[in-house]
Amino acid sequence: MKTLNQNNKQIEKQPLEYYLNLQYPVTLYPDPEGGYVAQIKDLPGCLTQGETLDETIANINEARELWIETAYESGDDIPLPSSEESYNGKLLLRMPKSLHRRLAEEAERENVSLNQYIVFLLSKVS
């Protein structure tokens, strides 16, 4: 199926499954009233909240799917995920064993991976 983009250029519309499989950056931050908020800035209005990090991540994944399905069925443009080619999202970090242990214990209490917990903490300071 061919559609017109914003510049009136004809483009090939991908199947719904293509858009559902795209990896969008998610911003997580604590809600002042408790729990967490998650947002996908590339998909305007796509945000949610949850009591725990796991619940919030599950909710944002569901919100992303619903946002994409609704836009697709309405014939609206679905933005591609933003990317910074000079950044790959990986970082090798050395830290004291005591800090590593504390972070791992906190992640376990939150029932999330250490990686998710560190990303959450870093997102709070930016």
TrEMBL record:
<feature type="domain" description="HicB-like antitoxin of toxin-antitoxin system">
    <location>
        <begin position="24"/>
        <end position="119"/>
    </location>
</feature>
<dbReference type="InterPro" id="IPR010985">
    <property type="entry name" value="Ribbon_hlx_hlx"/>
</dbReference>
<protein>
    <submittedName>
        <fullName>Type II toxin-antitoxin system HicB family antitoxin</fullName>
    </submittedName>
</protein>
<dbReference type="Pfam" id="PF15919">
    <property type="entry name" value="HicB_lk_antitox"/>
</dbReference>
<dbReference type="InterPro" id="IPR031807">
    <property type="entry name" value="HicB-like"/>
</dbReference>
<dbReference type="InterPro" id="IPR013321">
    <property type="entry name" value="Arc_rbn_hlx_hlx"/>
</dbReference>
<dbReference type="InterPro" id="IPR051404">
    <property type="entry name" value="TA_system_antitoxin"/>
</dbReference>
<dbReference type="InterPro" id="IPR035069">
    <property type="entry name" value="TTHA1013/TTHA0281-like"/>
</dbReference>
